[in-house]
Amino acid sequence: xxxxxxxxxxxxxxxxxxxxxxxxxxxxxxxxxxxxxxxxxxxxxxxxxxxxxxxxxxxxxxxxxxxxxxxxxxxxxxxxxxxxxxxxxxxxxxxxxxxx
Length: 100
What we know:
The structure is a single chain. By secondary structure, the chain is mainly alpha-helical. It has one domain (2-96). 75% of the residues lie in helices and 0% in strands. Helix 3 crosses helix 4 (58-76). The relative contact order is 0.13.
């Protein structure tokens, strides 16, 4: 975890800027934005390539996109951050409620 904070501080030094406290805190739990983008977009490409993607509703697709983002945070940030897992369950629950 300290590596994430140090990475953010190192980037700030190089850029001659100071990150807002919110971004520093999110970096500790979510990992770097760059890592998240790479992982999340990779998962989303895989989902979109699946045969069933086109038959999903926009609501189902959005839930899967959000779950992909949460998975990327789990993989690049603090994996046992409870909120990440609660969010995955929450998005899945929203779709479950629509099932017949």
